[in-house]
Amino acid sequence: MTTPLSKFVLPEGAWQPLYEIAPQARNAYEIVTAPVGVAAARWTQLCEAYAAQRPGRVPLMWPRQGVFMWKGYAATGTGPAVVELYDPREHREAIWTEVRNLDPDQPDDLLRFVNHWGVLGVGNPIMAWRQDLFPFDSVAVMADWVRMRQGVLSAYQALRLRRPRRWAEVANLLGPGFEAGVRSILQNPEAMVTWPLLAEALNHLVGPLRHHVTAEGTHLRPVYALRFLADFINLELWQHVTLGKDFRRCAGCQDAFLPARPNQDYHSEACGNKARQRAWRDRQRTQRTSSRRPPRRPARPKS
Ligand SMILES: [Zn+2]
Questions:
Q1: Residue 49, φ and ψ in degrees, nearest 5
Q2: Is the pTM of this model over 0.85?
Q3: Rounded to whole angstroms, how far apart are CA atoms 283 and 277?
Q4: Measured in angstroms, how far is the CA atom of residue 284 from the centroid of ligand 1?
Q5: Residues 88/229, Cβ–Cβ less than 8 Å
Q6: How far apart are the C-alpha atoms of 187 and 189, rounded to whole Å?
């Protein structure tokens, strides 16, 4: 039911066995917006190390909007209590759809995602310097990361629907490490969304790849290794746009979903049943009210 954008595209699913990702951990997280408890001790240690190494520099700031930490870790210093491992490849569509439907301006929404699937692994501004001391994903960095992918998806959707749109209308491409890549778009905020500019933007969002091998019996199999959940989601984005897929709005709950069949109106069978039941009840109610109309009063016997 999908219309590939080019004849060079691999059939859906053909490339998937090439990609490998380690099982991801499901833990309970919380957003920690300021140094507290054990997190404060670690933070002080980090700041001191920073000041010693880079004297005279502006002191470190706790990441804007906080970081995702294992629940209770900030207070007690003990790691995640519940660890459940899952294979993201078994939940490809669910994860991708959830990213599409996230509200990046709502930290609680991002936290719900992280509690469901784990952190993306997009890091924080300090991580690049001392990952060992501060290995937590920043809320603001995740918000930017999601916002840019949703923006590029909107640009793609506008092109699919042949609706001329300006970049400024569909996407906020101002994100860490991204500005330089799409200078030609950003220098002209009035620039229209075009396929070549979309390709340019996507090329800065979906890479890079690591080439690996795994031993299989007496030979080596080539694999592309994905490190973080973020890489895995990028792969879904890449597949989505090259296969010419479209999200659709569910006729029941109004959420965006990926249809499995061309005539699918509801995101799930349960949602369709619920909507049909609701419609049936509404019909019953209208019928009942019309039949319950008070009977005409019998004519008063003449006295
Ligand atoms: Zn629905």
A1: -60, -40
A2: no
A3: 10
A4: 23
A5: yes
A6: 6
Q: What's the gap in Å between 181 CA and the centre of ligand 1? A: 37
Domain layout of the chain by residue ranges = 16-246, 247-286
Strand pairing category for 210-216 and 84-86? unpaired
User: Phi and psi (nearest 5°) for 156?
Assistant: -60, -45
| CA of 237 relative to ligand 1 center, distance in Å | 22
Structure tokens that stand for 212 in this block? 């690996």
Ligand 1 mean position to 141 CA, how many Å? 30
Q: Dig out the tokens for 191 from the structure.
A: 């620039």
Q: Give per-residue pLDDT as tens, 113-132.
A: 999 999 999 888 777 677 77
Residue pair 130/52 in contact (Cβ under 8 Å)? The answer is no
| Cβ-based neighbour number of residue 235 at 10 Å | 22
Closest CA to 158 of 169, 149, 148: 169
Per-residue tokens: 160: 């699919």
The 10s digit of each residue's pLDDT in 182-194 is 666 667 768 889 9
Residue 277 CA, ligand 1 centroid: distance in Å: 14
Structure tokens at 70: 């294992």
Q: What string of H, E and C letters represents the secondary structure of 170-208? A: HCCCCCCCCCCCCHHHHCCCCCECCHHHHHHHHHHHHCC
Could you tell me the distance, in angstroms and rounded to a whole number, from the CA of residue 97 to the centre of ligand 1? 12
